[in-house]
């Protein structure tokens, strides 16, 4: 946190993002599994004690995703200038002196970029970051109106006859203001432009007219500051981020096969020596230990894979933990609170939910295990199902060490299978089976003479 006058950060995130053609607010769109707005929050968190997010379109979904964030509502989306004006009462109340403002659709910004911008902005009343691009696209264009004066003209309002060919210098959507300047200038904004919106960018011209110190802060051609408006721009930013994260991981000693197809969230921790094959997605707070292997076509979210575990192709893991020496997949599904202990095995078309599969135990084929505690060296036969739900409540199944569950068994919970017991194939087990016993529930097989068909 920088010393000096009390500073707040404001994120503009109330817009719909019409160019995304979605009912969800644009800042909820994800890059590598994290919403755009999360990146902006992450970049600002180390630098500002007070961070306000202007929300409006889809504000409920934002509040739900970030329950502890400070939101300020912009009821109608009348433009970026109007959005910032919605924060004025709160900023004055909090006795803030300087206000950093950034568009919420700038996901690749990072703390060091902001810090550098703030130090170069110094004590200017208004500072705005600019980029030099080959093509100014739909960005606001920076126009020199005199020796030391500038204006930002939005692409829609750009008049070639008046301003000539654009230079490629554009407004990045990152600003700093003295609160005094905002208090005086924001009420003066007008919406007499092509969009009929109150443009934040008009503060540059207005500020100079009123004698405030105003200057652009050129930030080169850094793509990290480019705003995301369309699906194509989102994909391009995600590609940049993926390449950066993967290059850092490979530098650290993580082995990635086909890295262009490996998507790893910045929130995930991958230890050196881990090996991951693309295509593959590792999202959320996942952790992959050294010498763990994740094969291609897997998706992991918020899952912990310890060293020397193997996740084979086409597995889907969420909120689970896999210990060293365990093998999962191919085609396995681990749902929240599944824990696969040391050297256990989960095979194809096996689903586990809220279930602990003990050390050395195996569930290799076509099985559902939910709300279960399974001991050591248990064998779960093909087609075993824990019937954990009676339509209203969930019940637990306990299978003790060394038990053997024959194929096509239904275990109707609550039920316990004792240590070293065997369940005969095809049984529907509704009563607990004590240790060292055989539990079997099926009709005796009959052999009859074959009936003549003709
Ligand atoms: C804006 C700038 C443009 C700049 C570009 C950089 C203005 C008028 N233009 O254009 O100069 O080059 O960003 O990426 O500021 N928002 C609100 N309330 C509103 C409208 C928008 O909170 O009423 C938020 C949006 O959610 C978004 C941000 O403000 O996060 C920017 O809005 P957007 O519509 O994307 O502006 P651009 O047209 O990209
Ligand atoms: Ca934008």
What does this structure look like?
This protein is α/β, with parallel strands linked by helices. It folds into two domains: 7-225, Spore Coat Polysaccharide Biosynthesis Protein SpsA, Chain A (Alpha-Beta Complex); 231-439, Hexapeptide repeat proteins (UDP N-Acetylglucosamine Acyltransferase, domain 1, 3 Solenoid). The protein is 18% helix and 32% strand. It is built from nine helices and 37 strands. The strands form five sheets. The protein has a 23-stranded parallel beta sheet that branches. The protein has a seven-stranded mixed beta sheet with strand order 5-4-1-6-10-7-11. Strands 30-33-36 form a three-stranded parallel beta sheet, with no helix packed on it. The longest helix is centred in the middle third of the chain and has 22 residues, at 231-252. The radius of gyration is 30 Å and the shape is elongated. The mean pLDDT is 96.
